[in-house]
Amino acid sequence: MKKYATEVGLDRARFDAELDRGIHAADVKRDLDEGQMNGIESTPTIFVNGVMLLELSPEGLRAAIDKALSRAGVR
Questions:
Q1: Model-level pTM?
Q2: Helix, strand, or coil here: 5?
């Protein structure tokens, strides 16, 4: 993770210090637990109006949005 922090331009000293001290460990654990409760097994995972997108493609996303709009009576 430290290598990626450097690659994306984060303040490496701050990143290292916070990672090493576990500053955000509780937040990460909460997010992981919540993801598992919602059936998320990988990233990215996309939800449209609470429905998990199963086809990760532009077409799949468009179809999910169109379906959600239709259910809402927008289209």
A1: 0.59
A2: helix
